[in-house]
């Protein structure tokens, strides 16, 4: 037997209680790891490395549409190969099921997104049928849509000219993704922008965002700067970013992600402090005579303090590291599942902050019970006073 | 047996309970030679356990001197006293006070964690101690898997394992039936006679006191007599 063996044996004296406490530590650090990496993603600076497409939106918000007339100017920017544009439709299927539906220019979109696979005949029909709609494989499978069907979709934003928010589209094609990553992004439908633009009651000739296909990935940052500079001080100032940052921007609309993450973590760790602190306090309380016996045998007050503190450290360290490890695994799974769009990666900084949190928490939950153990007077403890 | 193991000189012990001061020992003087086996008897509150705690270095006197094995223990600091206890005295309690999470051998090994012995040497010493108390075959058992008598034997092995010259036992048979109690007392007698351990026990039981070489009676914090 060693001192550490003794600490671990004591830790598991009430197996169920320790396992439950351990689970709460694991869960807290799992959350910590995942939320910290979410925070990290949202706070990270723009990363243009390897970007082959850029998204242009209104500088204020992507909810403010930009004029489609910007297309030729964007096409003229050196480094831009093609331009497509897209308008959020805000579709609702049946009673209240929201759908991702965008109004696009079919052939421009096809050219900019070769990752979406569909027979050319269907692309052509989509382009030449004003009321046409194409749906991704996931979406079509989910609702059992077949080509040739009339799909009734209402818009929670755009009424038609007659005031009705009920729209109907002819499903002329079903597209797939070129690989597993892109197959996961087929939960979306597209309608013809020309028809939408003509039939809706509000603003004409506008799109929420433009997609720039680049001639050279190395020029992404330069193109981004050129585009934003071009429209600076105009009524339609732009914000040009990578697709990845653009997608994150969607989530940011929810609110201040950093603040939300901080509050969640505060709540989690505060609760954890109470749970683990209570476990440690209870553990010391119920073995006061044993601690007194240790002192009787010759262990100093400092050694007894060390034993109790070591139990807190072991509990937090084991649970914390396991939680961070789980977060790393889950993060990698999320990253893989979203095709790299949501890189939930626990980098070194998250691990370092996590380890610092483990140390701080160990001290916070272990110090008071350890000091109590240190202060125990042998004769009083043995006499049950 | 003439060399002194324990010298208690004019010891007074006062406890403070709130604003109340209780003097438990009043200028007590006592000598216990090396190799002696002394039973301390007396009514509840007479100061037996207090005296035992002072001799074992678990507590300090309010005034007076205590010398054990040549060390003036009343002058040691808390840390020095802990170190002194680890090397000079073994304790046996009424309710055994074993660590429930450790096996018999783990319990016996515990005091050896304070030494610089190797793991192999520690295991060897533990085996010898368990053999001395007749529990070599129960080494892997946890306290809850042992009878009261066996638990007390483990506690005695724990007290013995670092080879202290002094054993202090507070009501070591108080929780045992007569037959088991006599076995335990017989074991203490063997340790005293064959291994030369100086033993001081506190007991209420005159039968238990018969196993000692001599009995000291305490009453109201003072030594009444010394009986052969």
Short summary:
The complex is a heterodimer of chains A (385) and B (228). Chain A has 385 residues and is an alpha+beta fold.
Tally of extended strands of chain B?
10
Please tell me what the overall shape of chain B is: globular
Which strand order does the major sheet of chain B show? 6-7-8-3-9-10
- The DSSP helix count of chain A reads 15
Distance between the termini of chain A: 31 Å
Task: Provide a descriptive summary of the structure in words.
Chain A has helices at residues 3-11, 15-43, 71-75, 106-112, 120-128, 137-143, 180-183, 193-199, 220-230, 243-252, 257-285, 288-297, 301-337, 348-375, 378-382, and strands at residues 53-58, 66-67, 80-88, 91-93, 97-99, 101-104, 116-117, 132-136, 150-155, 166-177, 189-192, 206-207, 209-214, 238-242. By secondary structure, chain A is an alpha+beta fold. In chain A, the strands form 2 sheets. In chain A, strands 1, 3, 4, 5, 6, 7, 8, 9, 10, 11, 13 and 14 form a 12-stranded mixed beta sheet that branches. Chain A has a two-stranded antiparallel ribbon with strand order 2-12. In chain A, β4 (91-93) and β5 (97-99) form a beta hairpin. The longest helix of chain A has 37 residues, at 301-337. The two termini of chain A are 31 Å apart. The mean pLDDT of chain B is 90. The longest helix of chain B has 18 residues, at 178-195. Chain B has a 6-stranded mixed beta sheet, with helices on both faces. In chain B, strands 2-1-4-5 form a 4-stranded antiparallel beta sheet, covered by helices on one side. Chain B is globular. Chain B starts with a strand and ends with a strand. Chain B is built from 7 helices and 10 strands. Chain B has 228 residues and is α/β, with parallel strands linked by helices.
């Amino acid at each position: 037997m060693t001192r550490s063996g003794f600490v671990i044996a004591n830790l598991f004296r009430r197996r169920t209680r320790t396992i439950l406490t351990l689970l709460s530590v694991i869960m807290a650090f799992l959350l910590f790891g995942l939320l910290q990496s979410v925070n990290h993603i949202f706070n990270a600076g723009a990363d243009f490395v390897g970007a082959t497409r850029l998204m242009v939106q209104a500088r204020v918000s992507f909810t403010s549409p930009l004029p489609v007339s910007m297309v030729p100017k964007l096409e003229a920017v050196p480094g831009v190969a093609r331009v497509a544009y897209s308008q959020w439709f805000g579709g609702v299927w049946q009673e209240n099921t929201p759908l991702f539906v965008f109004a696009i220019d079919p052939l421009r979109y096809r050219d900019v997104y070769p990752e979406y696979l569909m027979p050319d005949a269907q692309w052509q029909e989509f382009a030449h049928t004003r009321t046409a709609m194409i749906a991704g494989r996931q979406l079509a499978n989910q609702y059992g849509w077949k080509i040739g069907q009339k799909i009734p979709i209402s818009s929670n934003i755009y009424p038609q000219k007659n005031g009705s928010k009920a729209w109907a589209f002819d499903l002329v094609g079903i597209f797939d993704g070129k690989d597993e990553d892109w197959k996961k992004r087929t939960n979306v439908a597209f309608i013809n922008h020309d028809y939408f633009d003509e039939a809706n009651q509000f603003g004409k000739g506008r799109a929420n965002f433009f997609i720039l296909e680049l001639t050279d990935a190395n020029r992404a940052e330069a193109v981004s700067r050129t585009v934003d500079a071009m429209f600076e001080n105009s009524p339609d100032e732009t914000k040009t970013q990578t697709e990845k940052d653009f997608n994150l921007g969607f989530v940011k609309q929810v609110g201040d992600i950093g603040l939300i993450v901080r509050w969640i973590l505060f709540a989690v760790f505060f609760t954890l402090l109470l749970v683990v602190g209570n476990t440690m306090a209870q553990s010391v309380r119920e073995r006061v005579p044993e601690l007194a016996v240790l002192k009787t045998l010759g262990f100093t007050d400092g050694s007894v303090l060390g034993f109790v503190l070591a139990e807190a450290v072991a509990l937090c360290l084991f649970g914390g590291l396991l939680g961070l490890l789980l977060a790393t695994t889950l993060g990698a799974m999320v990253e893989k599942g979203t095709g790299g769009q949501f890189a939930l990666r626990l980098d070194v900084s998250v691990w370092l902050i996590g380890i610092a949190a483990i140390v701080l928490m160990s001290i916070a939950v272990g110090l008071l019970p350890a000091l109590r153990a240190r202060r125990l007077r042998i004769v009083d403890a043995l006499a049950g006073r | 047996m003439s060399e002194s193991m324990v010298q208690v000189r004019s010891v007074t012990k006062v406890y403070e309970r709130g604003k109340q001061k209780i003097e438990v020992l009043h200028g007590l003087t006592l000598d216990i030679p090396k190799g002696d086996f002394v039973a301390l008897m007396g009514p509840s509150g007479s100061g037996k356990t207090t005296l035992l705690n002072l001799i074992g270095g678990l507590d300090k006197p309010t005034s007076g001197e205590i010398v054990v094995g040549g060390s003036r223990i009343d002058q040691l600091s808390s840390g020095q006293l802990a170190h002194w206890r680890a090397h000079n005295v073994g304790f046996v309690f009424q309710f055994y006070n074993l660590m429930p999470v450790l096996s018999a051998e783990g319990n016996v090994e515990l005091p050896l964690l304070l030494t610089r012995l190797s793991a192999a040497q520690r295991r060897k010493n533990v085996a010898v101690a368990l053999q001395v108390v007749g529990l070599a075959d129960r080494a892997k058992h946890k306290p809850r898997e042992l009878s009261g008598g066996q638990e007390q034997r483990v506690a005695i092995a724990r007290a013995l394992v670092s080879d202290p010259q002094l054993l202090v036992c507070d009501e070591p048979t108080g929780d045992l039936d007569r037959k088991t109690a006599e076995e335990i007392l017989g074991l203490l007698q063997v340790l005293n006679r064959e291994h030369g351990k100086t033993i001081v026990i506190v007991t209420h039981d005159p039968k238990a006191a018969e196993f000692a070489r001599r009995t000291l009676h305490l009453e109201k914090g003072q030594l009444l007599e010394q009986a052969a």
